[in-house]
Amino acid sequence: MRVALIGQPNCGKSTLFNQVAGYKAETGNFSGTTVTYTESRVRVAGEVIELVDLPGTYTLEGGSPAEEQAARYLDSKSVDVIVNVADSTHLASALELSLELLPLKKPVVLALNMLDEAARLGLRIDGEGLARQLNVPVLPLVASKGRGVKQLFLKSLEAGRKKQTSTRESSCAEARHQLAKELARQYVTQGERHVTWRDRIDDVLLHPVWGYAILLFVLYLFFQTVYGIGKVTEPPLLAFFDLITKAVLTPFGAGNLFSEILLGVLQGIAAGVAIVLPYLLPFLFGLGLLEDIGYLPRVAFLMDTFMHRIGLHGKAIVPFILGYGCNVPAVMSTRTLEEPRDRYLAAALATLVPCAARLAVVFGLVAFYLGPLAAFGLYLFNLIVIALTGRVLSKIMPEDTPGLILEMPTYRVPTLKNVLSKSWFRVREFVVEAWPILIVGSAVLSVLNYLDVAYVFNWLVRPVTWLMGLPSETGVPLIFGIFRKELSLVMLSQALGTINFGSALTKVQMVVYATFVMFYLPCLATLSALKRELGTRAMIAIGALTVVIALASALLVRGIASII
Amino acid sequence: MQSLLNVPNGQQAQLVSVSERLLRKLKQYGLHPGDTLRVLRSAPWGGPLLVEVNGRELALGRSVAENLFVETECELH
Fold this sequence. Notes:
The complex is a heterodimer. Chain A has helices spanning 13-21, 65-76, 91-101, 115-120, 127-134, 149-162, 173-187, 196-205, 210-249, 257-293, 295-309, 317-323, 327-332, 340-350, 356-370, 372-396, 416-451, 454-460, 462-467, 475-480, 487-496, 501-504, 507-519, 524-534, 536-563, and strands at residues 2-7, 38-44, 47-53, 81-87, 108-113, 123-125, 138-140, 188-190, 405-408.
């Protein structure tokens, strides 16, 4: 038997799915987190059912990717029962979707979810009356606490076996809207409403002055914590991998091709671990926390006006924040934007955000030799360049989207289980998609190293390095930085033959080098993410764009730095 | 009839007219002509409005709010 879960965004549908299927769907307090559907085989009361989690939709007729996906699925696949999850706190709007589902001639079970929150809002729902009126089973549910889940599925199985369908004819959106409002008026009684705590929190968090001050503080705390965790956990991890590498390589001797490739593979694995565990995991965990509390939509609200100046709107803030951790999940998160043009622009700009690996280069060169203020200046410069690029790109691709429309969910207390599973879900994307590329890239790198073809690369990119006033030896670390960004620093010491960069490079050269690294070509893993999300042409275009921006910025910085 | 942008915070207004294209988008969020909107707050420097519709809160960008034509309570009576 195949059971499809459908409901409007933020109705707790994925939470229900996870309760049953064991954390396979991404849930979030931010509309549109589920864009594709997730399928899982689960056992309910001794029977195996195919459970499908469809993307959250307000209607089946809207035409957004998620809605088309859901409508097509209900239409084409052999769905035996539709479980319609409704947010009890917004029943008038939830019933609109229900009224759309009833005429599909499939058994429907209506689950009134978040009844606990509805009760807190003083809402009393007459489920029996609603069941009689709609002629479908109506069941109470608190998915986040697992209450009513079993009964819901037992009832769904029963409905699926009986194959009883509604006789309701389909009607136009307007009629459904009126009827849903009427039904809500009839079966929902509003008691004492006491939501002032939410309004009071919003009074502060969305305040024209305090809202931004708190946002800055939250982001500061967020990045401080993430980088703090990274700084503590990275060195022992790297030391551990050094030990393993030595142990594995010793039997093969040094200097032969095989041991070089093996070394490359091991270094690729180590790089993945050193990015994922210390930085990406805390980063995604923190972001998941902010998301589940309901803070991210508030960030979108506050930042909307600034995002408009660079041709995007508030929802596109997420890829930017993610970008500071790693560009791969940043590019992936552009999926939540509805318009293709917005996805393109947000992805292009997010790849210009310096990730944790590029941060290492800026810190190792600029902060170390020129002081933290110079590094901070470089970050500020980066923001300005991103803003300018956004303005120019939105001139070329004018904004024709209506603008921000985003539901402000109520604040929720996040559950550890939920946040952890979500972080894992996103880390898995990195592990599956980006890590193999890191490893292969690293192996290719070792072969090139073994063949000693460095001079070819130096010669190939000499026009660029010459233009920036850099020694020709910087060609190799720049090219190899495409494999993994931190190589631009690691290999710089090999290329220059010293770890004291101050003796080989002038201060101007260091800043110019760091500026170029900050912008030029995203790493292979990000490029592949761009290809998957936007296609090969977009990947090439964005790649070329970053090189142009990097070169222009580096030259500008060279000019300014030489004057100072 | 006026733009939602001109409705001060805390006031209610009824959605009367909106372009076909924008309406399609709004319907996805459960907002239809005839619905009563209440402007809760607005972000500074040309930021979005926060409105309450049918018991849920929606953030509407300026460009969206500008194109929502509404009638306030006093106009209706």
